[in-house]
Design a protein that fits this description.
Blueprint: H1 2-15, E1 19-23, H2 32-37, E2 42-44, H3 49-61, E3 65-71, H4 72-78, H5 80-89, E4 95-99, H6 117-121, E5 127-130, H7 138-146, E6 151-155, E7 172-175, E8 183-187, H8 191-197, E9 204-208, H9 216-228, E10 234-242, H10 247-253, E11 260-266, H11 277-283, H12 288-299
């Protein structure tokens, strides 16, 4: 995903004079050729992530379309105040592109983990959030974000699904269960472990790489099938960041519809462990075995 982002952003710099890239050392070497070609629109501010976002806000005020890039924990957690003031408060936009996701950088410790990034952005206004599940989904999402001036977060990961689903801006059914089957919503790279987890279960699985704005209409349509069959709908939400991040949105979307729901994601407890991404997926119950255990217990 990171390579797809760098290639696409470089092409945008060549093709669109509005595009600018602001870095804080991360991936600076990869953008070095582009910086030589466009020294006025590829800016590396050094290890100053707050300044990176502030510069992006200034560029946006001049009419440019800035792309900001770093690890999620630096671009969102560390620079939250600048996202709030220099973008939200000023009423300007940027494309914030992160790597590291929740625990891709676990071998570097807690400093490089950011399971709460999307929850933090939910406290701000009018952010579109893309969580691609495959590298082939990245170019289309980035190009679409570069064409307007709104605030966009593109969350990249080393965890990937088997196949790209580039048209999954809305909930897209990838596995159909019976008429009253429970619904499992998989966000981004969670689709791969979910599909392995539900083998032999009568469930419907829907996928999205755009959890913000959440596809309320699609959710109600999918849940409506179970309601029409006389069942109380059961919805399992599987997200690759903090568990429960989208629970309020799901509850609001199904307001007035009796239902049961389960939110799965990264736990809130700091495990104080290094390890690899696969280790953390297992510890948080986001591997196929852990997901199957949680889903079957919930469904009874």
């Amino acid at each position: 995903m990171r390579d797809a982002f760098i290639d696409t952003a470089t092409a945008l710099l060549d093709d669109d004079p509005r595009t600018a890239v602001v870095l804080a050392d991360i991936s600076a070497s990869s953008f070095a050729p582009a910086a030589r070609q466009h020294p006025d629109r590829v800016l590396n501010v050094g290890i100053r992530e707050q300044l990176m976002v502030g510069v992006a806000g200034g560029l946006a005020l001049t009419g440019l379309r800035p792309i900001v890039h770093s690890y999620a924990t630096f671009a969102v957690d560390r620079a939250y105040e600048q996202l709030k003031l220099d973008l939200d408060h000023q009423g300007v936009g940027a494309v914030v592109v992160s790597v590291g996701a929740s625990y891709d950088g676990a071998s570097m410790g807690r400093t490089h983990m950011s399971p709460g990034d999307v929850a933090l952005l939910d406290t701000l206004s009018d952010w579109t959030v893309h969580v691609p599940g495959h590298p082939a989904e990245v170019p289309g999402l980035l190009r679409a974000a570069a064409r307007h001036d709104e605030r966009v977060y593109l969350r990249l990961s080393t965890q990937v699904n088997d196949l790209p689903r580039p048209a999954a801006g809305q909930l897209t059914v990838v596995h159909r269960g019976g008429a009253d089957a429970p619904l499992v919503v998989a966000v981004g790279p969670m689709l791969h472990p979910v599909l392995h987890a539900i083998t032999g279960l009568d469930v419907t699985v829907a996928y999205t790489h755009t959890p913000r704005p959440f596809d309320v209409v699609g959710l109600r349509e999918l849940v409506g099938a179970a309601t029409s069959a006389g069942a109380v709908p059961a919805v399992v939400l599987v997200e690759p960041y903090l568990a429960g991040t989208s629970s309020a949105l799901l509850g609001a979307a199904l307001g007035g519809v009796p239902h049961r729901s389960l939110a799965l994601g990264v736990g809130r407890t700091d495990l104080r462990r290094y390890g690899e991404p696969a280790d953390h997926a297992r510890w948080h119950g986001l591997d196929p075995a852990g997901l199957r255990r949680s889903i079957t217990e919930f469904l009874g």
